[in-house]
Design goal:
The chain is an alpha+beta fold. It has two helices and six strands, in the order H-E-E-E-H-E-E-E. Strands 4-5-3-2-1-6 form a six-stranded antiparallel beta sheet. The protein has one domain: HIT-like (HIT family, subunit A). Bound molecules: adenosine monophosphate and zinc ion. The site of adenosine monophosphate has 12 residues, from loops.
Length: 114
């Protein structure tokens, strides 16, 4: 499989990983468009929201809440999904952009793969 996000999930491509469990990985976007720009990514490979099983869809949003709690961003973040090339999707592995411009937030990455 040539999917770059699957490679990150396997720890076989460089990434700054903020959070990871059995189902979800959260890592830094390489071209950040905000002070904090994370990609909340199900480990299950699919490209569209309609293909993500319900239990994993729930886990994505549970993870969004975990991130929010940890970074104390309760009132200042944006979640973006590009679902399909016409909507701006480039990487064909479903992921949600988690963005915030809150100043003075220290994002501590758990694992950095170089
Ligand atoms: P999109 O598919 O439009 O939602 O955007 C894909 C996002 O993935 C872009 O914001 C890219 O900067 C980001 N990206 C692409 N390759 C990598 C990578 N190897 N590591 C981290 N982020 C990436
Ligand atoms: Zn993939």
């Amino acid at each position: 499989m040539s999917c770059i996000f699957c490679k990150i999930i396997e720890h076989k491509a460089p990434a700054k990983i903020f959070y990871e469990d059995a189902n979800i990985i959260v890592f830094a976007d390489i071209y950040p468009r905000a002070k904090i720009h994370l990609l909340v990514t199900p480990k299950f490979h699919c490209s569209r929201i309609m293909d993500l099983p319900d239990n994993l869809t729930l886990k994505v949003f549970e993870t969004v809440r975990k991130i929010t709690k940890e970074l104390k961003l309760h009132d200042n973040f944006k979640l973006v999904l590009h679902n399909g090339a016409l909507a701006g999707q480039i990487v064909e592995h479903l992921h949600f952009h988690y963005l915030s411009n809150q100043p003075n937030v220290n994002v501590k990455y758990k694992t950095v793969i170089t």
